[in-house]
Amino acid sequence: MQDKGVSGRRMTAVACVMTLAVAGVLAMAAEAAPATVNQHLKVKVHASINVHDISCTNTGTWIVIDGTLTFDGLGITATFQNNLKGTHTATAAGAATFEVTPAGGHLEVPKQGSQFGVGGNPHMSFQFWEEGQTSPSGGWMTHEPITDRIYLGRCVQGSTQHVEKDLYLDGDASAIAEGLDCTNRGSSIGLTGNEDTEDANGTLFLDNNKNFVVHESATAAHMDVDFGTGLHVRKGGNVNGAGGNPFIWLQFKNKHVGSDDTNASDQFYVGRCQELRKN
């Protein structure tokens, strides 16, 4: 005959285990939430700028500027692993199934013209810059040069000049991962990607002294060129991976035209599929 005291102790122990298990499940549910990762970027942009409709007279100079900015793309790779040793891995590559921005996307530089008081056939140069920090009062914004001045030559009536340059703009990316389906048949997570870059701009310098347009801050005339706006993109999508409750990593990828993707960040561990589900 079983001792009632032993039986009672066993029942109490089982109840404690069940209580702890329920408490653990509730704790996991309370902690479950989508994860966010952030990364600072240098975004490659190819600038193709046209300086045309040039008119050079003794009384002044007229110039029109336009062009195109072509951006590298940004993707997100989600890596699913059933254990931390990686014996079974399924990768959902951002380059194949999820992209925030496509490689080769471009923005048109709006046509802008200006008349200068510099007569004759002045020397011309062009410099790219991006907007820096604003003053504490917000009354001005610094210009941060991202290239040296590029000498274009002298103003010649009716001529056209071209400026081709690869730029690297400061940018930021973020990704939000949310667990959607975490079963033995497979797992699925929702991704929301954001990409923002600084605005790119440029300045055309003119002076009758070549050294001034190439090296000096004080030239006879200059024209600031507004390229429009930088990239400000938000995009969502789903990716699928290994079944069960896999461990998940995210990694940002640079997407290039005509070549393989390259890493834009290290891998970020964001948790297991169940941990990324909304409560």
Please render the helix and strand layout as text.
Elements: H1 4-31, E1 35-57, E2 60-71, E3 73-81, E4 89-92, H2 94-97, E5 99-101, E6 105-116, E7 123-134, E8 141-145, E9 150-154, E10 161-183, E11 186-197, E12 200-207, H3 210-215, E13 221-226, E14 232-241, E15 247-256, E16 259-263, E17 268-272
Antiparallel strand pairs: 1-2, 1-10, 2-6, 3-4, 3-5, 3-15, 7-8, 7-9, 7-12, 10-11, 11-14, 12-13, 15-16, 15-17
Could you describe the 3D structure shown?
Helix content is about 15%, strand content about 60%. It contains three helices and 17 strands. The longest helix is centred in the first third of the chain and has 28 residues, at about 5-30.
Strand percentage, roughly?
A: over 45%
- Structural class, judged by helices and strands? mainly beta
Average pLDDT for all residues:
81
Question: What would the principal axes of the Cα set say about the shape?
Answer: rod-shaped
How large, in whole angstroms, is the Cα Rg?
29 Å
- Cα-to-Cα separation, first versus last residue: 48 Å
Residue stretches low in confidence (pLDDT < 50, at least 5 long) are: 11-30, 87-96
| Neighbour order of strands in the largest sheet | 6-2-1-10-11-14
How helix-rich are the residues, as a percent range? Answer: 10-25%
SSE order in H/E notation? HEEEEHEEEEEEEEHEEEEE
SS field, number of helical segments? 3
- Number of beta strands: 17
Largest sheet: 6 strands, antiparallel
